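3.2 Worked example (two chains)
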Amino acid sequence: MTLSRRTFTAGALATGLVAASTPVRAQASRYFAGRTEDNGFVYRNTNFKSIDETWHRQVVKYYSDEPIGTVVVDTRHHFLYMIYENQTALRYGVGVGREGFQWFGRARIDRRALWPRWVPPPEMRQRQPELPALVEGGAADNPLGPRALYLYRDGVDTGYRLHGTLEPWSIGRNVSSGCIRMFPEDIIDLYQRAPNGTAVLVLEHIAKPT
């Protein structure tokens, strides 16, 4: 399996900053509950009581031919799996690329960052001129959140990341510009489980509009 036609194109470098609908934003406060300090910065805790249990992190039965420790992303169903032994996996809910920005294939985590800074690519800034040139890690408006795992192929940065989100309501939806977004608590958890060298497979499903 190879990465899609958008692989390594400048347009695919976007990290997935996409505004959610106004009605959802109007109710945003119910998706948060308190704050947590982490490595000198603070993030808003997800109020999982407001999140459908489908998207909660949980161990499930999962049949795969991939080796233990592989990360598998199912874009159609909005799940990310960390493969365990005995046909089980740790499953996370994720937000994935919207139509026209999906990507698929094999990659490897070759870089990981705590509180990464965000640099919108030129193509994204052309589409959204109001975006800043750079957002420092830990800033309240940094869409990557507390962690980012950078996906490489053959030693080349694909431009895609697994990262946190400021919009917990976007999990389970097709919202990003290609990257895979996770609850802050989940990307912190995955960061601890997926060292550099971890294999990643994004299944070639065409995500249905949501």
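3.2.1 Second chain
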Amino acid sequence: MPFQPRVAILVPAPDYYEKWQPAFARKAAALTAAGLIVEQRVWTEPGDLSAYDLVLPLFAWGYQRDVAGWYALLDRLEEASLPVANPVPVLRWNSDKAYLGELGAKGVAVVPTVEVDALDDASLTEAMSELRADEVVIKPAISGGADGTHRIAPGAPIPADALGARRLVQPLMPGILTEGEYSLFFFAGKFSHAIVKRPASGDFRVQEQFGGRETACDASDAAQALAAQGLAAAPAAPVYARVDMVGDAAGTLHIMELELIEPSLFLHHAPDKGAAFGLAVAQALI
């Protein structure tokens, strides 16, 4: 019987509030089809991972709510020289959205972003002036699932959870309300598929838990080129990647974020249903 590598997928604790199992089943099926043995380990208490041929943090959902625990896990994986995909330097770099500033400095079109160490009325007014925006979105630099993300209209107060906290301030991009947010998926550097996510009426968040919905779509050459440019700035080539982007008032696309840790990959929208994903992970073992 041929050797079958064992991979550990890091998953949330049993009481985690979001339903992750259906997406896990799709990813696990793609990995199994690629000849891998898939097992689950809770990311907050993974135990001994040394027996695995590869560790995948694909469902380390909620890491933004336990930042110290997350960084401690990354340190442990790195110190033990355990094989991880994406590589630990990529995971650490991608954990904090300060990387958007790095992308912008390298000429990558990103959503304009102002970082504020301790948000208050004065710093918000200054950020809005710098962005030339009357309406903005604020979010934690370490965030996921739209946690702590708020749309602030002119004159609206700062939400209590953001007051005095480190926050990123961005203009409300018109494209999110008209066309939606585009997500492009890459496995081993090759484009796989794309979707567009649209918010529910009256909202700006595209996540399913807020009523957002997604459909498959084609990705233009410009969108693919922008995504590739953003991914090239990562500390190492990612095995799997999702690139979220949105249009400005003129329809020009800007990267909203790179999802290189635990992204939903929407493999049911991939033409090959995830075969390229499974192959990319299997090749990472070589």
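3.3 Remarks
The CA atoms of residues 27 and 114 lie 35 Å apart.
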